[in-house]
Amino acid sequence: MLLQIPEVLTAEQVKQCRQALNDADWIDGRVTAGHQSARAKHNMQLPEHTALARQLGDLILAALERNNLFMAAALPLKVFPPLFNRYQEGQSFANHVDNAIRQVSGTPQRVRTDLSATLFLNDASDYEGGELVVEDNYGVHTVKLPAGHLILYPASSLHHVRPVTRGTRLGSFFWIQSMVRDDGERTLLFDLDMAIQRLTVDAPEHASVMELTSLYHNLLRRWADV
């Protein structure tokens, strides 16, 4: 499932992130890349141990916890602390697949990367190029979203970032270990959840609301790995 989640951050939160990142000290983005990805990755990254990275990461994590669409789609068990990157003219990230397991630096905690997420932190009009391109069983998807919007997709997907040809692209990226590791099962649960929510609005007293809600939780109980 590839899903756009609008307005994860407010305009004021986006402004706060951009102002902080404009004054930040950036390093070579290959510091967090695996052996293969390091040869494909050409961007800059905010050092993950800095107070600024933790502060902005906490802001994003808090916003995700309040976002019902994200919670329904990801069913998160663990979220890797958000990282931040910057692409300037000529920079890109060639085709790659994200590592299956990520260790949170400085801790024993490991996160299985069921889902990848990119949160756009400046508007598409600020730069040319820089599209995220995700390949899945249904084809090739090109993604370039407004500031504050997020794209969520299976971490097993082959994907790349096209070269930026003008301006600067700012974003945050991170991974999610879901309670339901299988993408097909997770998609069925999401679709069922959305149908229940629509039915609750349209016919709140209908007996099917309880029946479908019971079905949802019984499937989640069957498939969840917690």
What report would you give on this structure?
The protein is α+β, with helices and mostly antiparallel strands. The chain has 6 helices and 17 strands. Strands 1, 2, 4, 5, 6, 10, 14 and 17 form an 8-stranded antiparallel β-sheet that branches. Strand 12 and strand 13 form a beta hairpin. Helix 5 packs antiparallel against helix 6. The longest helix is centred in the last third of the chain and has 20 residues. The protein is globular.
What structural keywords apply?
226 residues; alpha+beta; 8-stranded antiparallel β-sheet; 5-stranded antiparallel β-sheet; 6 helices; 31% strand
Question: What form results from the Cα inertia axes?
Answer: globular
Q: Any low-confidence stretches, pLDDT <50, length ≥5? A: none
Share in helix: 25-40%
Compute the gyration radius: what is it?
Answer: 18 Å
| Terminal CA distance | 21 Å
The ordered H/E elements are EHEHEEHHEEEEEEEEEEEEEHH
Provide mean pLDDT, rounded: 95
Query: Largest beta sheet, briefly?
Result: 8 strands, antiparallel
- How does the helix and strand content classify structurally? alpha+beta
User: Could you give the count of β-strands?
Assistant: 17
Strand content: 25-35%
Q: Provide a count of the helices.
A: 6
Summarize the structure.
This protein has 226 residues and is of the alpha+beta class. Helices cover 33% and strands 31% of the residues. It contains six helices and 17 strands.
